[in-house]
Amino acid sequence: MPVTQSLNSRRGTGNSGGELTEPPPARLAHMPARAKLERLLQVAQGHHKALILTHDNPDPDSLAAAVALAHLLERKAGLKAHIGYGGIIGRAENIAFVKVLRLPVSHVSTIDFDEYDLFGLVDTQPKVGNHSLPARLEAHLVVDHHPLRQESLEAPFADVGGDFGATSTMLVEYLRAARLEPSVEVATGLFYGIKADTRDLGRETTPTDVDSYLWLFPRMDKTLLAQIEHPELPARYFQLYHTAYERAKVYGTAIVTDLEEVYSPDMVAEVAERLMFLEGMKWSLAFGTYRNQLFLSLRVKDRRMNAGRLIREICEDYGGSSGGHGSMAGARLPLSGKLAQRKALKRELVAKFLEAFGVANERPVSLLYAQDS
Question: Where is the composition biased (Polar residues) (predicted)?
Answer without folding.
Answer: 1-13
